[in-house]
Every structure is written in structure tokens, then in C-alpha cells.
Amino acid sequence: MLYAAAVSVALSTEPGDEVLQAREDRPVVRHGDQVRHPRNPWSESVQSLLAYLAEAGFAEAPRPGGVVGDHDDVSYIEGISGDEACTLVQSDEAVAEVAQLLRRYHDTVEAWQPDEEPVWFDGRRGTGSLPGELVCHGDPGPWNLVWDLCRPVGEQLVGLIDWEYASVGTRLTDIGYALHYLAPLRDRSYWHGVLGMARKPRRRHRMAVFAEAYGVRLDEDLVEAVVASQQAGVQMMIDLAALGRPRQVQLIAAGELEREQRAVDWTERHRHKFSLAGVTVAPDA
User: Fold this and answer.
1) What percent of the chain has pLDDT over 90?
2) Co-location of 190 and 139 in the same domain
3) Signal sequence span per UniProt (predicted)?
4) Which of 33, 140, 171, 246 is the most exposed place for a label (fewest CB within 10 A)?
5) Is the torsion defined by CA of 200, 203, 209, 214 positive or negative?
6) Is 162 found in the same domain as 71?
7) Same-domain status, 96 and 41
8) In sequence order, what are the residues at sequence separation of 6 or more whose Cβ sits closer than 8 angstroms to the Cβ of residue 51?
């Protein structure tokens, strides 16, 4: 069962607070060294996850600040994130850093067994009961990465933020989502308009870089995971909008559902170009 949500949320602000996100359904405010989000039924579970990660030494996740009244807080991570961060994943080195961070997270969270059963945004519970299941970040797109460009190349990725979509899945759930936007398996409007790439990406090569850095095989299962991630994103938008979730309702009204469906259709049309099926591998898409 998926949770419903209120139509709009208001967060109280104080002098000196910085509005990081002004969305009506999910305003986000920086309050000193804390980032304040609206409280949700799964906020305590996210806080519990972040507390475990902090204790386990996973330094790239925000530290939990607690749930108080109508909001929850996490620590602010200094660096470049959001739209600007999307332009920082063009190089092989950046793709490898993302893969290594995701591998460290998965290796860390795999052992998490909290005393109280967590409940996630999609109504799922626990940390996984089937072989290979764990708690995924759920939204490891380039906009949720934090970079510190003052560090040496290979050490610039310092944060993975926005854990509201954490839920139970497998490693391939997060990997497929990440590669959907990193390869990316989307058309020019994304790789040029969002990632800022001047030339068409070598998608299979970028998938291979990610796979090697994470430590998985670049095979048909990996390709299928990316396709499944695209399809799951479309279905989730439909499901959450049907429940009245303001964000998804607004996205559909703005044409986002059609854009995401076009991304799925694009992948289906071009899949043979980056698929590994068969003896001969076709030129890159």
C-alpha cells in the first residue's frame, strides 16, 4: 500500500534560513548546518537508516538531525548538487566515482537489521526478506550527488543526499536507476540539455566503466535493470498521482509522464545498439 500525502506543506522559517527547494509539496530549507524537510510517515525510518550509516562509517550520507513537530532535519553537506551537479558526470572518472560510492553504500547497508521495522514511502517494510534484498537509496540520480571540486580527481564525490525514496530492493535496483541517467539511456534532450555533453555519449562504454568500478558484470541482466528502472519510474508516477501525491500530479500535468514514456520508448528502439546479446556487438547508440 502506498502512502497518500497532503496537498501542500508549509515549513516555518527563521531569519538567515535559506530556501533550497520551494516546491509546494516539499519545501526544503537550510537552517544553519541542518537541512529541514516536511515530516512524512516514513521520516523516522529514514532517520534510523541515516543513523546506522553514520555509525557504520559511511561518510557520504547526511547525518540525522531528528524528527521534531512537522519537520525532520539532516546535516547539510557542502558542495555542488542539484542541476549543476548533473553537468559533473560527463567523465569516466566521475562515472566510476558514482559506482564506487553506490557500492560502498550497498556493502554498508546490507548488514542493517534495526530493532524497529522501518516503513518506507511506498508502503514496503523492513530491510528485505528475500536473498539479495537490501534498502536502496531509491533516487541515486546525478542531481542527488554532492561534489567538492577542490579535491583531487577521483575524490570529489562527497555526498549522496535526498533519501526520501529509500525502500527495499536489490543492488541492481539502484544500479539500474543510476545508469538510466548516467549512461544515459535517454535522447539528446537529456545528455546535451541536462548533462551538458557536447558529443553523443558512448553509452555502452560508460556502462562498462560503471560496472567495472562497482564490481558487477556488464551483461544482459545489467541492461535489463536499466530498462526496468525506466519502466518502474513511469509506473510509480502513475501510482502516486492516483493517490493524489501533489508532486506526481503536478509532473503529469506538466507533461512529465509523456516525456518519461518517450524515454522508455527510446530505449526499446535503441536497445540493440547497447545490448550485449549475441556474438557481435553493434556500434554504440
Assistant:
1) 68
2) yes
3) none
4) 33
5) positive
6) no
7) no
8) 64
* Distance of alpha carbon 195 from alpha carbon 29, whole angstroms: 26
Q: 141, 94 in Cβ contact below 8 A?
A: no
What are the φ and ψ backbone dihedral angles of 108, each rounded to 5 degrees?
A: -75, -50
Is the Cβ–Cβ distance between 260 and 141 less than 8 Å? Answer: no
112-166 confidence digits (pLDDT tens): 999 999 999 999 999 999 999 999 999 999 999 999 999 999 999 999 999 999 9
The side-by-side arrangement of strands in the sheet containing 34-38 is 18-21, 28-31, 34-38, 71-75, 64-68
Q: What share of the chain is helix, strand, coil (3-state, %, to 5)?
A: 40, 15, 45
Domain boundary among the residues 42, 75, 108 is at 75
Span 171-194, pLDDT tens digits: 999 999 999 999 999 999 999 999
Cis check for the bond before 114: say yes or no (omega within 30 of 0).
no
Print the domain residue range for 27.
18-75
Confidence (pLDDT) at 196: 98
- If asked whether residues 244 and 107 sit together in one domain, one would say yes
Q: Give the pLDDT of residue 1.
A: 42
Rounded to two decimals, the pTM is 0.88
Rounded Cα gap, residues 264 and 231, in angstroms? 6
Question: Is residue 236 domain-shared with residue 268, that is, in the same domain?
Answer: yes
Question: Are 52 and 103 found together in one domain?
Answer: no
Residue 151 amino acid letter: R
Query: 153 and 67, same structural domain?
Result: no
Is there a single domain that holds both residue 177 and residue 88? yes
